[in-house]
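Task 17 of the worksheet. Students: predict the tertiary structure of the chain below and write it out as structure tokens. Keep your answer in the requested format; marks are given for formatting as well as content.
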Amino acid sequence: MSERVGAVVRQAEIPMVRAYQLWFEHTRTCDQCRRVNRAQDGCRDGQELWGTYRLARIGGTT
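Model answer:
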């Protein structure tokens, strides 16, 4: 992979990683999200953070 392509890939990954980090940090402190097996079953904030992560993962806008 060329250096330029590698830089583009790293830039594209940043929003996805950040969105996942926000969701993960939320689940560590939210009692409701901590007790469920699926992100879709958590509290409204957790669901919104997971939705943001999913959009970032597929390259959608948030």
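Marker's comment: The CA atoms of residues 14 and 43 lie 25 Å apart. The first helix runs from residue 3 to 29.
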